[in-house]
Each structure stands twice: as structure tokens, then as C-alpha cells.
Known about the structure:
The structure is a single chain. It is built from 8 helices and 4 strands, in the order H-E-H-H-E-H-H-E-H-H-E-H. It is mostly helical. The protein has a single domain (4-161), classed as Recoverin, domain 1, CATH 1.10.238.10. Helix 3 packs antiparallel against helix 5, helix 5 crosses helix 8 (150-161) and helix 6 (116-125) crosses helix 7.
Amino acid sequence: MVTQTERDRFQAMFRQVDGDGDGVIEQVDLDQMVQRTLMQFGAVPGSAHWRRVTDLGNQMWQALQKGADADGDGKVTAREFVAAYRRADFLDQVAIPFELAALETADADNDGRISIAEWLTWQQAKGLSQVEALQEFQQVDSDGDGFLTREECAQHVKQSYTAQ
């Protein structure tokens, strides 16, 4: 059974990917989200970060289409999207690696940590407001040092996609 909190979280994630707001995710929606994210980070086309995030975005679409597009129409509905994200294999093998690759691209100074400014850039690319992003940063920064580690972010991503 999906809780209302979980439903709201998945709907927000679905809207982030459904760029044209037509109620379904198609490959173009995911491609545009990936490119928008990379541009927001200032990733150079063809760079290692660019290729990695793009490749993982393509893998995400293939996994969604293969495992979630139940009727094979090339479109993923909100229900199909939730079903995919609730599968542990999709989460561990597709969603988390994609999010962490985007996180690494957000680390503009390559210090291995995400500052508040870098986090805001990442979250803005995902469509969150600055207030929501700041609130989330405070929740994720478990040691309160003003920076996020890969481990803090990985834990946050996993919690974002699983029931709490």
C-alpha cells in the first residue's frame, strides 16, 4: 500500500521528469531533463561527466521502457513510473547511480563535497524551489558541517525513493 506521503513524493518526481506536462514520460522528456541538468551544471558536451550522465540517463529510459512500460506504447504513465521506482533492482542499478553521477557533476570545484550553492544548482535543475532545496539540504547534511558527502547524498537518494 502506498502512503499519501509516498504518493506525493513520487508525483513530484514524476513531474520533474515529465517536462512537457502531458502526463506521460517519453524518451524526449528524460533526454531533456538530462540535458537541462548538465547545462545547469556547466558540464562541457563530450566531457567525461557529460557522457556518464547521458549514458546513465539512456540506461534509465531503457530500464523504464523495458520494466515499466507495461503496454509497450513508448510512454511511461505515473503508475508505471511508481512501479519501476519501487523495484529494488531499478533503484539500486539505475536511479541511484544516475542521481550520484549528476551529483558528481554538480561538484563544480571537484572537492568531493557538495556545497549549499552546488546543491541549489542541482535541485534547481530538478525543478525544486530554492526554499525547498534549502530545507532539504539541512535534512541531508547529517553532520551539520555545511557540506554534503557522497554518502549523505546516497542515503538521501535511497530514502527519497523508498517508503519511510
